[in-house]
User: Fold this.
Amino acid sequence: MKIVHPPPFPTRVFINLTNLQANLRLLQKLAGRAALFPAVKANAYGHGARKVVSQCLKEGYNTFCVAHLAEALALKQAGLQAHYLIMTPFLPPLADEIVRHSFMPVVCTLEQVHRLARAVKKQNKSVKIHLKVDTGMGRVGIKEKDVFPFLNAVKQAQGVEIEGVMSHYPRADEMDASYTSTQTKRFEKIRKKLRPYQIPCFHIANSAALAHQDNAAFDAVRPGIALYGLNPFGLKESSTMADLKPVMSWKTRVVFLKEVSAGTGLSYGHAFVASSRMLIATLPVGYGDGLRRILSNKMEVIIGGKRCPQVGRICMDQTLVDVSSLEGQVKVGDEVVLLGRQGTAEMSAEEMADKASTINYEVVTGITSRVPRIFIS
Ligand SMILES: Cc1ncc(COP(=O)(O)O)c(C=O)c1O
Assistant:
């Protein structure tokens, strides 16, 4: 992309909404007749929740998974009318606000139910809840053996309607799907037992399960990472996920160039010392933007269509790159790709995550709010 006037902030994230649309369509194919509830928590995994939600609304999706009440509120206040499923347990005093805005909370304690019932009565409204059952994640949820007593207690709470029962997979990203298959069967058993309650929506699948687990779609699926074109299996290949298109690219520009002689120490702690004469570019990006410091001396960036090694400690706002291989071809203002493509070279969030000993989820959600998101389609 040619930018004539440099933007005031030199590092930018580009969000390709056409790719998001293609991913939605691919995932819906995998989900079959199950509804798709896009996971847009954490600012849509760093992609910009407002634009992502509005694109999904255009595609006909109207139920979104957020983590917190505040996320649902921000989206609603931005004019995005939709159903918001609040997945992280809410603190009981927030029940009033949840009912007032007709959000759908995920519930896993009776105190939450009682607080919602009180709020419903006070406001003369009703609330739809999704009950979280812990079938193996070990994070939140009621135990399987408590499902019946819990549901019976909820039945006494007037105006509190059980819209869904949900669970979550802890190991769906493993190539050995046996644990996940057992969990799917357990969830199916729960569904069968709960038939008399006529609960409309059972859901458990995240992106990885949608890709590799048979019978995991139930009534709805909650993909996040795959929606953004990223592989839930990291660097491991997945034929089902192969056609996903990364939605995000992350770019900056060269702001300074210098030649250094052999023996010159670079950046904090001189964690890199030039072994010969080198050409070094400074990039105006650092851990203040989400470029993780642990990547120091490990990662590469793309300049002039070529991979160039990053050198020295990544600072809060600046990072150095060895551009000796581009001598005579690189100048201040040149585009640098941190994530995405340039010519035939590509840097993926999976590769960056691997080098930082983390997962692609953390790479994209970790890009901080000072980096502008530019939406293209
Ligand atoms: C409860 C729940 N459902 C769905 C998702 C989406 O998972 P993924 O991004 O792996 O598709 C998450 C993400 O962490 C989650 O916590």
